[in-house]
Design brief:
Largest sheet of chain A: 5 strands, antiparallel
Radius of gyration of chain A: 35 Å
Strand content of chain A: 5-15%
Oligomer: heterodimer
Structural class of chain B: alpha+beta
Number of domains of chain B: 3
GO molecular function, one term (chain A): clathrin binding
Helix content of chain B: 10-25%
Membrane topology (chain A): Peripheral membrane protein
Strand order of the largest sheet of chain B: 11-13-9-8-23-21-16-19-18
Pfam families (chain A): Adaptin_N, Alpha_adaptinC2, B2-adapt-app_C
Radius of gyration of chain B: 25 Å
Number of strands of chain B: 23
Main location (chain A): membrane
Number of helices of chain B: 7
Largest sheet of chain B: 9 strands, mixed
CATH topology of the largest domain in chain B: Beta-Lactamase
Organism (chain A): Oryzias sinensis (Chinese medaka)
Distance between the termini of chain A: 99 Å
Mean pLDDT of chain A: 76
Mean pLDDT of chain B: 85
Number of helices of chain A: 37
CATH class of the largest domain in chain B: Alpha Beta
Distance between the termini of chain B: 47 Å
Strand order of the largest sheet of chain A: 3-4-5-8-7
Low-confidence stretches of chain B: none
Shape of chain A: globular
Number of strands of chain A: 12
């Protein structure tokens, strides 16, 4: 006997027939009829008109029939609210039934009937059930509170159900605890006060006890709840970790991933050098690998999360690259994720294996996957320098296959390889040129054109090649048009004699026949540059390009930290913070990783030395900036590009009046302008400057020298201003080592001038210095120049050259620099504030109009005015600051203003 | 939490829907159909989709999409695990998980879904517990029910629900007390052209079938537990004792269950039982290719390799094959381009060989991809990792149970690249 017969009565008077059957005298017939109704309901037929007849069947002692009627009620009560009232009495009666199963069923079903009138009657039975002697009823009632909250939140609070729910966390039955936690978590998602679950050590202990005994689903809720707790110290964190670790061996992958979340979060609190920390790291790897042997859907979610984990802590899975090798029958979404992680884990040690795999993948059937595999080879080349040669030859092999999309993808990545290793692999250009005709995708065409333009001097027929592209200029995509324009200008600058005609052709195509403002503007800039000052043009167009780095696709560190707190959730699958996609997210609070506080004496929180061992996680897209005029890069460059266009625009507008803009630095990075009194002191950013992904603190200016030049007519001092040395590290805190120092800028280089004094009784040797990641990427460019041991009471003056090419992390305050100094005795930490003037470059002068336009371009909100007080310059001086002791600052990154002002203030006072 | 579940068949019809909270219109599935359309193969539909108001999390198994619609932030793995559990329960109750069988048992299915989830919270997902509340269909009972008017819904509170052993029902009684354990290992491996192992690991499970009276407390110990460093357990296993003594101590659920699964990935421990010599080539100009495959035993630990089968996904351009096998039978499916060579038992004295020519579509270019070979095999009475059960002890009950252990090695995703 099967139920399929219920589906067969598909003829016209079906409802009528059912009605008759429901009112049949025989119990059995009625039950059969209810079953038919349910069957019709499950396939989406509307059987709501039978409501009164079905409700009549509710008064029965047959549990199955009762359940079926309940099922029906839940579905249709909403559309028949008046009728649903008829059922209330039976519900209330069932809530008093001696059988706990019926009590639970009644309270459960009542909560599912989303009719306001019914919920009023629900309160009393629910209150009783929350205190029922039977845990089965209690745990059902806990869930019912969440249901009720969904229907009428106000009532739940007024009736004090939230407090009852909190009391259940202390229940003796682990299942009840788990359900109470689940209900509270769900309520808090839509509740303005998201801290419903007041987590304190006692509660945590109860949760941890329940964790061992409740069902797998309850464990997920409890673990997710635990991950929101902030342990007060590392001991508490460790003891929680110890009790959570066994969950890593659970058969349910969701339990495993939730446990991983708790551990990843609390790892932050553990001291990095402890045995426990390292043991925990080791324990995290096998469960993650195990997740990959699950169903493909589980693998997918696991891989998305592993992608985050390898970015945060690459050490966990660095030995396991093989499990990410692709099997040909993996679903495509698994393949693509695996590939991504393979590249993240690629290193010198395993690159041979990885490359062999990637080459294998490039011959597979799926086009998307093959493309990504080819791209991956390029990323390996850029990431692992030692492998570049092998990658290039692999790519060449692939080009030889002549498979169209493989060739195109390979050419795009070879362009990037050229950018990373200029003048190294030009020998392959000839091979690339052979495939010119087969390129039909804009990306590949643009890449090829760029290569031809960049290496025009080594390609005999570069002009013919580019000319061939020019024929269909107007049919090309903007990207190709822009690249072609630049490439031909490059070619012209390299071989002016033969290509004059070509360049004129392209300039007129770009400026006269195009509707695209970008293209037109760029055309005009080049035209004017070329016609006015070919030497400058050469400097601008053929300038040295900064190298690109591999990690352009890493997740920005603060977002990564936030996502780590959301491991296992939807956020971790989308790689977006919940606020970016959860609807009505007023209940969503940003989560942060806890910060490890060093209990030692060091004034710097966190061990800077340890932190420096972590990989650089800043996408250094800023490096690409300097080249914007020359190259349209495929990957999005999320730095405002407007300023280049604006400069062009200014140029065009002022063209009649002024001579050509003298672009001292062709930087297109956001520029900060400093305005003192009525004098313009323009400045620009050094192109080596790597902006952090937050609105970048781009303060850099040569303003100071200009200031003196313009206002007082003083000669430019090449030394710049340096504050007197201050004691950075007192001897009492560093076992006898005293360090005093200051920062200065001389001949365009930054220095950290320090005096090391040995006030201890023993000699010191083996000095070394390291900086923590900081807002400006400052790092020492040479080791500490102390080569001889420092005898007691001896002191030594040294000057440490600095550079701004290090890893960037926003600090508070912005100019904070954490330094670790090591000697034969110990490691010491201190932090200093870097005066901003050492970042100001000497060649930041800017033409008046350009400055004005750019000043206007920065929104007025960003303008800050400061009064310069107590100016110590002598009274007879009529320099601008003395006459107009006011400083107006406009910065694209407003947070910088304050520090620029402080610096001005201190310079002027001294 | 999980709001609604839609069951969708291969051709895209929604044949069952269930709502645990308010009713979500089935039009939400349109987003899924769109993705399904794009993915071409049903296996390739991404499991997590986002729509303007809902998240759609789906699994694909047994030619059915289990699609859940969700309105709040929920751990996706939680949903995926639950959906698989729903599929497992159907399998457990009805013997298979298919559209026909679900439609045949729609009322039980509905009762099950209602019992498994309450307002989106999982309620009872253990097969032992569910079976106490909702009896699985069987012919005898349905006959009895029709005669006596009995029902298939249990009238008692499921005892397992609240005890500390929620997975076991109380009052179990058997006349024959028996406990069987199957150690099943699957070899996942990728071998490259030359036969070198690119990647290999063993996925092992211990499947148990325990029919013991009362509340037995079992301890299973191994000869070489050190092999197992990456394990996941059924909730019944006491983790503390595993950590300290490396034995599995547990009160078993009643009936069939997976006691533990484990992974042996250390390369030198993974023995590869067969070697494959293959040569598949396509001629540059002509419209044919050659195929030559030989299989021989490698590390079989003296056991016989059975159920040997080779599957090759040929490039599209291959029209027909003209092959001769020294052993077994081969078939070539023209539509799917899959060549299956069913060899059977591997005879080390006379190695099976399959060779012949492939005829290609005239004028088609030489195929770019090289087809991988998928190997299937079985070795009875051997766990390829070398894992051995040493003994099973029972405490808490007086009787003497019948005990048995079986070993089986299979090929999992075992691929040879060409």
């Amino acid at each position: 006997m099967t139920d399929s017969k219920y589906f067969t009565t598909n003829k016209k008077g079906e409802i009528f027939e059912l009605k008759a059957e429901l009112n049949n005298e025989k119990k059995e017939k009625r039950k059969e009829a209810v079953k038919k109704v349910i069957a019709a309901m499950t396939v989406g037929k509307d059987v709501s008109s039978l409501f009164p007849d079905v409700v009549n069947c509710m008064q029965t002692d047959n549990l199955e029939l009762k359940k079926l009627v309940y099922l029906y009620l839940m579905n249709y009560a909403k559309s028949q609210p008046d009728m649903a009232i008829m059922a209330v009495n039976s519900f209330v009666k069932d809530c008093e039934d001696p059988n706990p199963l019926i009590r639970a069923l009644a309270v459960r079903t009542m909560g599912c009937i989303r009719v306001d009138k019914i919920t009023e009657y629900l309160c009393e039975p629910l209150r009783k059930c929350l205190k029922d002697e039977d845990p089965y009823v209690r745990k059902t009632a806990a869930v019912c509170v969440a249901k009720l909250h969904d229907i009428n939140a106000q009532m739940v609070e007024d009736q004090g159900f939230l407090d009852s729910l909190r009391d259940l966390i202390a229940d003796s039955n682990p299942m009840v605890v788990a359900n109470a936690v689940a209900a509270l978590s769900e309520i808090s998602e839509s509740h303005p006060n998201s801290n419903l679950l007041d987590l304190n050590p006692q509660n945590i202990n109860k949760l941890l006890t329940a964790l061992n005994e409740c069902t797998e689903w309850g464990q997920i809720f409890i673990l997710d709840c635990l991950s929101n707790y902030n342990p007060k110290d590392e001991r508490e964190a460790q003891s929680i970790c110890e009790r959570v670790t066994p969950r890593l061996s659970h058969a349910n992958s969701a339990v495993v991933l939730s446990a991983v979340k708790v551990l990843m979060k609390f790892l932050e609190l553990l001291p990095k050098d402890s045995d426990y920390y390292n043991m925990l790291l080791k324990k995290l790897s096998p469960p993650l690998v195990t997740l990959l042997s699950g169903e493909p859907e589980v693998q997918y979610v696991a891989l998305r999360n592993i992608n985050l984990i390898v970015q945060k802590r690459p050490e966990i899975l660095k030995q396991e690259i093989k499990v990410f090798f692709v099997k040909y029958n993996d679903p495509i979404y698994v393949k693509l994720e695996k590939l991504d992680i393979m590249i993240r884990l690629a290193s010198q040690a395993n690159i041979a294996q990885v490359l062999a795999e990637l080459k294998e993948y490039a011959t597979e059937v799926d086009v998307d996957f093959v493309r990504k595999a080819v791209r991956a080879i390029g990323r390996c080349a850029i990431k692992v320098e030692q492998s570049a040669e092998r990658c290039v030859s692999t790519l060449l092999d692939l080009i030889q296959t002549k498979v169209n999309y493989v060739v195109q993808e390979a050419i795009v990545v070879i362009r990037d390889i050229f950018r990373k290793y200029p003048n190294k692999y030009e020998s392959i250009i000839a091979t690339l040129c052979e495939n010119l005709d087969s390129l039909d995708e804009p990306d590949a065409r643009a890449a090829m054109i760029w290569i031809v333009g960049e290496y025009a001097e080594r390609i005999d027929n570069a002009d013919e090649l580019l000319e061939s592209f020019l024929e269909g200029f107007h049919d090309e995509s903007t990207q190709v048009q822009l690249t072609l324009l630049t490439a031909i200008v490059k070619l012209f600058l390299k071989k002016p004699s033969e290509t004059q005609e070509l360049v004129q052709q392209v300039l007129s195509l770009a400026t006269q026949d195009s509707d695209n403002p970008d293209l037109r503007d760029r055309g005009y800039i080049y035209w004017r540059l070329l016609s006015t000052d070919p030497v400058t043009a050469k400097e601008v167009v053929l300038s040295e390009k900064p190298l690109i780095s591999e990690e352009t696709d890493l997740i920005e560190p603060t977002l990564l930290d936030e996502l780590i707190c959301h491991i296992g959730s939807l956020a971790s699958v989308y790689h977006k913070p919940p606020s970016a996609f959860v609807e009505g997210s007023h209940g969503v609070h940003r989560k942060h990783l806890p910060v490890h506080i060093d209990t030692g004496e060091s004034p710097v929180s966190g061990g800077p030395a340890a932190a420096m061992d972590q990989p650089h996680v800043i996408p250094s897209q800023g490096d690409l900036l300097g080249d914007l005029l020359n190259l349209d890069l495929g990957p999005p460059v999320n730095v405002p590009q407007v300023s280049s266009m604006q400069m062009g625009a200014v140029d065009l507008l002022g063209g009649g009046l002024d001579s050509l803009v003298s672009l001292h630095a062709h930087s297109t990075a956001p520029v900060n302008y400093i305005y003192v009194g009525q004098n313009f002191i323009p400045s620009s950013v050094p192109s080596t400057f790597a902006p952090s992904p937050t609105p970048a603190p781009q303060a850099a200016s040569s303003g100071l020298n200009d200031l003196f030049e313009l206002s007082t007519g003083m000669a430019i001092t090449t030394g710049g201003y340096a504050a007197p040395k201050a004691v950075w590290l007192p001897a009492v805190k560093a076992k006898g080592l005293e360090i005093s120092g200051t920062f200065s800028r001389r001949q365009g280089h930054m220095y950290m001038d320090m005096t090391f004094t040995n006030k201890a009784l023993q000699h010191m040797a083996d000095f070394a210095i390291q900086f923590n990641k900081n807002s400006f990427g400052v790092i020492p460019t040479s080791p500490l120049p102390i080569h001889t041991p420092l005898m007691p009471n001896q002191s030594i003056d040294i000057s440490l050259p600095l550079n701004t090419i290090g890893p960037v992390m926003k600090m508070d305050p912005l100019n904070n620099l954490q330094v670790a100094v090591k000697n034969s005795i110990d490691v010491f930490y201190f932090s200093v504030l870097i005066p901003l003037n050492i970042f100001f470059v000497e060649d930041g002068k800017m033409e008046r109009q350009v400055f004005l336009a750019t000043w206007k371009d920065i929104p007025n909100e960003n303008e800050l005015q400061y009064q310069i007080k107590d100016c110590h310059l002598n009274a007879g001086c009529n320099c601008v600051p003395c006459l107009f002791p006011q400083l107006s600052l406009k910065c694209r990154a407003p947070e910088v203003s304050q520090y620029v002002y402080q610096m001005y203030d201190s310079v002027l006072k001294n | 939490m999980i709001d609604s579940l839609f069951l969708i068949n291969h051709s895209g019809d929604i044949f069952l829907e269930k709502h645990w909270k308010s009713v979500i219109s089935r039009s939400v599935c349109d987003y899924f159909f769109e993705a399904k359309e794009k993915a071409v193969d049903p296996e390739n539909v991404a499991p997590v989709l986002q729509t303007p108001h809902h998240y759609l999390i789906s699994i694909y198994r047994d030619k059915i999409f289990f699609l859940s619609a969700i309105q709040t932030e929920v751990p996706p793995l939680f949903v995926i695990e639950f959906l698989h559990r729903v599929g497992d329960t159907f399998l457990d109750y009805f013997g298979e998980c298919s559209e026909t069988v679900i439609k045949d048992n729609v009322v039980i299915v509905y009762e099950l879904l209602e019992e498994m989830l309450d307002n989106g919270f999982p309620l009872a997902t253990e097969s032992n517990v569910l079976k106490e509340m909702i009896k699985p269909p069987n012919i005898l009972r349905s006959v009895v029910n029709t005669l006596t008017g009995g029902s298939n819904v249990g009238n008692t509170l499921p005892t397992g629900q609240l005890s500390n052993v929620p997975w076991r029902r109380a009052g179990v009684k058997y006349t024959n007390n028996e406990a069987y354990f199957d150690v099943i290992e699957e070899i996942d491996a990728i071998l490259d052209k030359s036969g070198t192992t690119v990647f290999a690991e063993i996925q092992g499970v211990i499947e148990a079938c325990v029919r013991l009276t009362g509340m037995p407390d079992l301890t299973l110990s191994f000869m070489n537990p050190r092999l197992l460093d990456d394990v996941s357990f059924h909730p019944c296993v006491r983790f503390k004792r595993w950590e300290s003594e490396r034995v599995l101590s547990f009160i078993p659920p009643d009936g069939n269950f997976t006691l533990m699964s484990y992974q042996v990935s250390s390369q030198n421990l993974v023995a590869i039982p067969v070697y494959v010599k293959q040569n598949i080539s396509f001629l540059e100009a002509g419209s044919c290719g050659r195929l030559d495959i030989t299989i021989g035993p490698k590390q079989t630990m003296g056991k016989t390799v059975e159920g040997l089968m080779v599957t090759v996904h040929m490039p599209k351009a291959v029209l027909t094959v003209n092959l001769t096998a020294t052993q077994g039978t081969h078939t070539y499916d023209l539509a799917t381009k899959v060549l299956v060579w069913d060899i059977g038992k591997l005879n080390p004295q006379k190695l099976p060989n399959l060779r012949g020519s492939l005829s290609m579509q005239p004028g088609a270019p030489k195929p770019e991809e090289y087809p991988s070979l998928n190997i299937d095999l079985k070795i009875q009475q051997l766990a390829i990792s070398g894992l051995k059960v040493s003994r099973l002890d029972m405490y808490g009950e007086k009787y003497k149970p019948f005990k048995g252990v079986k070993y089986l090695t299979k090929a999992g995703k075992f691929q040879v690249r060409t």
